[in-house]
Amino acid sequence: MTIIAQLNYEVKDSQGLITPNTSIPLSMKINNCTPKYLIHKAIVIQDRNKRQGTASSKTRSEVRGGGKKPWKQKGTGQARSGSSNSPLWRGGGVTFGPKPRSYAKKINIKEKQLALTTALFNSMHKVTVVEDSFTNIIQPKTKAFVAALKKFVSLDETTRALVISHQTNENLTRSAQNIPNVHLSHMNNINVKEVLLAKHIIITQNALTNITGK
Fold it and tell me: Compositional bias (Polar residues) at which positions (predicted)?
């Protein structure tokens, strides 16, 4: 069953302080009856769509050679054999081996969006909403970006953080690409798995409004 959850977020400025009179009330569609099923479905389909499906093995008809009968049918004392390409032989073909195939599976757009908003709603205890100006980086400096992140969350080598932005620019991308366990994502590209795995989620005000308002 889909319900409308009413939420109220406090927005923080670039110094990590709550900005007065800037809390944003949002109405978020979530699934409260089968959230685990819906989220599980979205993650499984996401992982399936990443598979290349290029594994390939040769059957006995595709293995080179093996045209001659190894030995005569009778009189040798050995088991009869017609070809060295038999799956029973070393170097022979493979029985029911893998062949190139597509593992892709579709999910309805509304289901995908509902799974994302449900996962985001259940992760609200680790979400920090910041002003849109947080992503306006003048120079691509990793040290400055890390210092900005530490004003909102505590970072270390084992803490996974997700930064969701409403816009992308080269300076922001280059500043974040070398930070361990910090993943930068555009609001149109985030997925359920990223939200669930992250210990800290930093999202701009505009990005949160767009994600939950779909």
Answer: 75-87
- Closest C-alpha among 187, 211, 192 to residue 43: 192
Same-domain status, 122 and 174: yes
Q: Judge if pTM exceeds 0.85.
A: no
Examine the pLDDT at 34 and tell me if it is beyond 80: no
- Fill in the DSSP letter of residue 18: B
The tokens describing 192, both together, are 């359920």
Q: Model confidence over 122-170: pLDDT tens digits?
A: 888 888 888 877 777 778 888 888 888 888 887 777 788 999 988 888 8
Range of the domain at 93: 53-102
In angstroms, the CA 66 to CA 195 distance is 54
Q: Count the domains in the chain.
A: 2
Find the helix or strand (DSSP H, E) in which 41 lies.
Answer: helix 35-50
Q: Please indicate, yes or no, whether residues 85 and 185 belong to a single structural domain of this protein.
A: no
Closest Cα partner for 66 from 90, 92, 97?
92
